[in-house]
Structure to design on (515 residues):
């Protein structure tokens, strides 16, 4: 089931005018910001499908930048997000793409600074609900509705067991989990949606596993 | 967990409770939250809806494009004149639905029900019925859970996105949700609520999403108006004992399939329908400052 909560239907509380094109866009931008973990110096945004055709009218542009500024769907600062981003020294560029994507409301967000960069593809599936479908070239499915752990690791036996053991020890339940890789035996990505929030101690413990390269936590 | 309307109704009948209770219990189970937490969260949404309605019918709301705003208020003044033909309750619902969407178009704060473009129908009908049925705050919160339960089925079995399924998926879904919630608030049975949803949604099938200039304004605001009136009529029909020959779940399925066969030009791309009329194009050119011949 794509929708799990009644508040996906009655909600979110948001700044108009469109739940998919405004609130959903803000959420995609915000997930990208959380994955990056700090304020970026630049943001390159590509819109596909209905997003590309109507983003100005729906305020998709201000909303997605608002998300990158870490604003929630109901934050009234979204209206001025483009100006605020400029003031804060974030260089924003936007492109309308002609390519046909699986979902009509698709956005690709590349944010970064001199130290690093991430690339996120998100889709807005209706009523403000989103899914993250790609991260740095890895395919994944992330609703952004639950706390989640993204773990970059070596594609080797025992990686899943090692991570699962630590989570079990701290009584953290896994709601949804996916593993993907670009090539056998190389870098892989584990996406784990969890019911409880994982604290700093658990993140450090996961990071100390030899097989793990990087752990990113996304809050509820 | 209920997967369709038939299961939802069966649960409510077998437990002899309201549809709202089934939705609240499922939410508690899925999120691990207490009843108080879940209902107070909905209470907050209700407050946002109430504020949006009030703002829309009392303030001079105007969108950035200038295309919409002020019609909810206009209709309130007309009701006061005592000349209304379709009845005060009906027009009050229509006015409050439009008021919500006018606030939305002006980038004001609203609660998506189930989407922002269709956010007027559920609160519009609720705050109009409030004058006639005098519900408690608790019953008003239940109204939203009942509407949410039906919306939950539509979202999971069909779509609530205009880009995916056209306006029938947005205002159509909202209309069905409102019709069912009205029945429950008025004291109807769970089955009657499902009949109301089926009757309402049947009359929204095929509705395309064709917003002028891609803005959630024209025709969205007035589609919410008609959605609200459709919901009240469908609820009255169901309460009178009229049943839908096509069961609610099959109507939802039909809506999904119609959405899938809708061309992209009619699914929130501003390429067809009203968006592509001469006036629609003229307005678009004016709003974005792009000469018509360069489109």
């Amino acid at each position: 089931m794509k929708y799990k909560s009644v508040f996906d239907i009655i909600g979110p509380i948001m700044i108009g005018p469109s739940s998919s094109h405004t609130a959903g866009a803000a959420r995609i931008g915000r997930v990208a910001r959380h994955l990056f973990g700090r304020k970026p110096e630049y943001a390159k945004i590509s819109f596909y499908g209905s997003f590309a055709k109507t983003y100005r009218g729906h305020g998709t542009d201000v909303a997605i930048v608002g998300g990158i500024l870490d604003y929630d769907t109901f934050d009234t600062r979204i209206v001025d997000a483009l100006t605020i981003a400029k003031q804060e020294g974030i260089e924003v560029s936007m492109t309308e793409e002609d390519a046909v994507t699986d979902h009509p409301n698709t956005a690709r967000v590349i944010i970064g600074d001199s130290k690093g960069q991430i690339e996120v593809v998100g889709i807005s599936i209706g009523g403000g609900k989103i899914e993250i479908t790609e991260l740095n070239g890895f395919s994944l499915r992330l609703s952004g509705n639950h706390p989640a752990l993204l773990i970059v690791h070596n594609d080797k036996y025992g990686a899943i067991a090692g991570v699962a053991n630590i989570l079990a020890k701290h009584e953290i339940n896994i709601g949804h989990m996916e593993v993907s890789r670009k090539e056998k035996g190389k870098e892989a990505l584990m996406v784990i949606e969890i019911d409880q929030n994982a604290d700093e101690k658990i993140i450090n413990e996961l990071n100390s596993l030899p097989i793990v390269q990087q752990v990113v936590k996304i809050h509820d | 967990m209920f997967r369709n309307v038939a299961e939802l109704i069966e649960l409510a009948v077998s437990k002899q409770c309201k549809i709202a209770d089934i939705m609240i219990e499922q939410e508690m189970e899925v999120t691990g939250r207490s009843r108080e937490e879940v209902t107070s969260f909905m209470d907050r949404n209700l407050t946002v809806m109430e504020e949006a309605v009030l703002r829309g019918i009392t303030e001079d709301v105007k969108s950035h494009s200038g295309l919409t705003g002020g019609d909810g208020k206009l209709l309130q003044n007309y009701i006061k004149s005592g000349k209304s033909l379709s009845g005060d309750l009906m027009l009050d619902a229509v006015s409050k639905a439009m008021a919500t969407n006018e606030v939305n178009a002006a980038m004001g704060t609203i609660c998506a029900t189930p989407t922002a473009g269709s956010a007027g129908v559920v609160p519009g009908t609720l705050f109009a019925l409030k004058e006639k049925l005098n519900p408690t705050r608790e019953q008003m919160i239940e109204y939203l859970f009942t509407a949410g339960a039906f919306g939950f089925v539509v979202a999971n079995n069909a779509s609530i996105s205009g880009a995916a399924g056209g306006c029938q998926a947005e205002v159509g879904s909202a209309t069905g949700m409102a019709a069912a919630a009205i029945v429950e608030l008025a004291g109807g049975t769970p089955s009657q609520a499902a009949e109301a949803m089926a009757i309402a949604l049947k009359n929204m099938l095929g509705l395309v999403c064709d917003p002028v200039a891609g803005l959630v304004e024209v025709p969205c605001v007035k589609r919410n108006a008609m959605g609200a009136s459709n919901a009240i009529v469908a609820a009255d029909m169901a309460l009178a004992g009229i049943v839908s020959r096509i069961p609610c779940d099959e109507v939802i399925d039909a809506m999904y399939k119609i959405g899938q066969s809708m061309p992209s030009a009619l699914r929130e791309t501003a390429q067809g329908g009203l968006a592509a009329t001469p006036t629609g194009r003229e307005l678009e050119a004016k709003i974005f400052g792009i000469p018509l011949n360069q489109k």
